[in-house]
Amino acid sequence: MCGIVGYVGEAHAKEKIIDGLKKLEYRGYDSAGIALPVDGKIAIRKHVGEIKNLEKIILDPEFDSPIGIGHTRWATHGAPSDINSHPHGNEDNSIAIVHNGIIENYQEIKEWLAKDYGVKFKSETDSEVIAHLIGIFYDGDLLEAVNKAVAEMRGAYAVCAIAAAEPDKIVAVRKDAPLVAGIGKGFNFIASDIPALLKYVREVYLIENNETIVITADNITIYDENGKTVKRDVFHVTWDADAAEKEGYEHFMLKEIHEQPKAVYETLVRRINDDGSINLDGISMTKEDIEGYNKIYIVACGTAYHAGLVGKLVIEKMAKVPVEVDVASEFRYRDPFVDENTLFIAISQSGETLDTLAALREAKRKGARVLSVVNVVGSSVSRESDDVFYTWAGPEIAVASTKAYTTQLICMYLIGLYMGRTKGTIETEYYNKVLDQLKELPDKVDGLLKSEDKIAALAKKYHRREQVFFIGRGIDCGVSYEGSLKLKEISYINSFAIAAGELKHGTIALMEEESLVFALATQDFLYEKMVSNVEEIKARGARVIGVAKDGRTEIEKVADEVIYIPDCIDEVAPVVAVIPLQIFAYYVAKERGCNIDKPKNLAKSVTVE
Ligand code: M6R
After folding, report:
1. Residue of the nearest CA to atom 7 in ligand 1?
2. Measured between alpha carbons, how far is 246 from 519 in angstroms, rounded to an integer?
3. Which of 552, 494, 498 is closest to 525 using CA atoms?
4. What is the pLDDT of residues 66-75, one digit of tens each?
5. Which of 310, 307, 143, 156 is nearest to 214 (CA)?
6. Torsion sign, CA atoms 506, 512, 515, 519
7. What is the pTM of this model?
8. Which fold does the domain 245-445 belong to in CATH?
9. CA-based, 20 to 30 A from 220: which of 26, 308, 356, 462?
10. pLDDT in tens, 254-263
């Protein structure tokens, strides 16, 4: 995720900015840069790759100033490259900006600036338009120009700007992206995150949405959206830098579980237009292509494969085309039936999983069109695909995947809806219903996270069980696999997932009093069958935790405990149903004293066979 650091003080801003950027490295980034006002102009230095690459190109004493802004970029629009890195300048570099977030209407602004002002853009980013907008509105007052620019922008952003003609201040603004001001003596900071400042300051102002802030060496002034100055209480940071990186959460996994409402929102907002159509910007699949596919393969590993299991049911239902799901390590060696009428969908958080990459190459070799669903922009899978559908979950640091999974699910719905609409295989009413339900998911996930304590209590009660089963039918079956993987990978409990209807064909022999079973019963049309399965299990003495939608209380009669998820249509239930399973796995692992973020024997990215 991108990071911002700005400094105004007495000297050597670049050193303070580099210190701050290094403190944000843990968030993941692909390039870094700094802009400083030097001799009446703004000098910008930026470099793809690690911060040490940037350090090498800013050593010369001429590149120095008491004020500057810096950035670490996690690519969204445009691949990682020197040009796409921040800061961005306007045409004569009299203005420079750094930006976190997304400018939703950047294409419109770009066209307008090119047509009316003849602006020539250097990068592929959405952010560059901000520098040009400010430049066009600039008339000797940076604050006023930033306010005018912001009035043209839609989206989520934290922006910091400097002007060559006002080399004593930084103007910053936030909307739905974090920003904090660090209070020093004779110097001040602005940053996207508290860890960036802790080496130099412990007192900060937390900037609120739609506020603009002007920072000089001696002053920090905050303005509300009406331009009135705001008095803000000083917030004293008591955490150490390590805790601050996790934003107060004990582990990255918990932090990432809690980031899911935002991650799901980000995935949706980038793909749904105001008129309800799905925007496939950057994806070149045509109507003819979509109508020509007679088969889809979804291929992935681990959690991403589990997202594919849900994706199969969703895409088949919406686009009326057969979908096969396979684990990449099997697909690549089994000479699958793939030809030029096959769409191959690779799902991967990292985009570097070797088996997924090899499967993709095999599918391509056989003539398939490759669409990948990837989180890391510019990764190998994304580079080798014909089209990429990014998940926009932001960096996932914990080995156990959480927000990558829920955003992969969102991509499956969007792909299914788009294909269904294009082929005419879904009614408008159904399309709109699913779309409305998707838009409600960030709030529903957020609401569910509020029952964390209840699930933590269940984890405390059951954390000593050594055998846990996850069962479900239909789409719940895929979620069961994911719940089971989450639990086993971080708590080392022997857990097992199976289609509920398969239990009687063997696995029920293992049920005994010490067994714990999660019964996922979120599918209305399969609900009664799940209740019957739970009865069969109870007859063998096992403990059962049911997961059902609000209002479906029948299961209370048979299960020992029930976790309710917000009511929703069956199709989108996986996005909410998986949340309690992630939280349960997390707290069980915590109770058992496991290394949650880095479980034994596992790596975040599996780049070997
Ligand atoms: O980066 P990828 O999505 O390709 O990784 C695939 C699996 O290794 C990954 O999903 C793994 O199963 C998770 N870390 C489990 O939480």
Report:
1. 302
2. 32
3. 552
4. 999 999 998 8
5. 143
6. positive
7. 0.75
8. Rossmann fold (3.40.50)
9. 26
10. 999 999 999 9
CA of 138 to the centre of ligand 1 (A): 47
Mutate to test the pocket of ligand 1, among 303, 345, 347, 604 (most ligand atoms within 8 A of CB): 303
pLDDT digits (tens, 9 = 90+) for 444-492: 999 999 999 999 999 999 999 999 999 999 999 999 999 999 999 999 9
For the question of residue 2 being annotated catalytic, the response is yes
Task: State the average pLDDT over residues 591-609.
Answer: 84
Whole-number Cα distances in Å, 467 to 92, 461, 510, 516, 517 = 66, 14, 9, 7, 9
Measure the CA–CA gap between 207 and 100, rounded to whole angstroms: 14
Tell whether the model's pLDDT for residue 538 goes beyond 90: yes
* Beta strands 31-38 and 41-48, pairing class: antiparallel
Domain 452-591 CATH assignment equals 3.40.50.10490: yes
Average pLDDT score over residue span 290-313:
97
Q: Which atom of ligand 1 is nearest to the CA of 376?
A: 1
Sign for the pseudo-dihedral over CA of 425, 429, 430, 433: positive
Superfamily grouping for domain 3-238 = Aminohydrolase, N-terminal nucleophile (Ntn) domain (3.60.20.10)
Longest dimension (CA), the chain: 82
CA–CA separation, 278 vs 289, rounded Å?
17
- pLDDT tens digits, residue range 341-385? 999 999 999 898 989 999 999 999 999 999 999 988 767 898 899
Q: For residues 420 and 431, what is the distance between their CA atoms, to the nearest angstrom?
A: 9
199 assigned to active site: no
Note the pLDDT tens digit of each residue in 59-96: 999 999 999 999 999 887 788 899 999 999 999 999 99
Q: 440: CA distance to ligand 1 center in Å?
A: 27
How many residues does the structure list for the chain? 609
- Determine the distance separating the centroid of ligand 1 and the alpha carbon of 402, expressed in angstroms: 10
Rounded Cα distance between 368 and 285, Å, is 13
Provide the 3-class DSSP secondary structure of residue 120.
coil
What are the tokens at 118?
């003849």
- Give me the mean pLDDT over the 558-581 stretch: 97
Q: Quick one: residue 351, left, alpha or beta (phi over 0 = left, psi -120 to 50 = alpha)?
A: left
Look at residue 12 in the predicted model and tell me its pLDDT: 92
Dist CA 312 CA 322 (whole Å): 8
Ligand 1 pocket mutation, candidates 253, 257, 301, 481, criterion most atoms within 8 A of CB: 301
| CB-based contact 162:242 (threshold 8 Å) | no
Q: Which residue's CA is the nearest one to ligand 1's atom 8? A: 302
Q: Which of 427, 476, 498, 506 is nearest to 580 (CA)?
A: 476
What residues does ligand 1 touch, defined as CB less than 6 Å away?
A: 301-304, 348-350, 353, 356, 399-401, 485, 489, 605-606
Same topology, domains 3-238 and 245-445? Answer is no
Atom nearest to 401 CA in ligand 1: 16
Q: Give the distance, in angstroms, between the CA of residue 240 and the centroid of all CA atoms in the same chain.
A: 25
Q: Domain residue spans in the chain?
A: 3-238, 245-445, 452-591
Q: Which atom of ligand 1 is nearest to the CA of 402?
A: 16
Residue at token pair 């993709």: 360
CA pair distance 90, 68, nearest whole angstrom: 16
Q: 276 C-alpha vs ligand 1 centroid, how far in Å?
A: 32
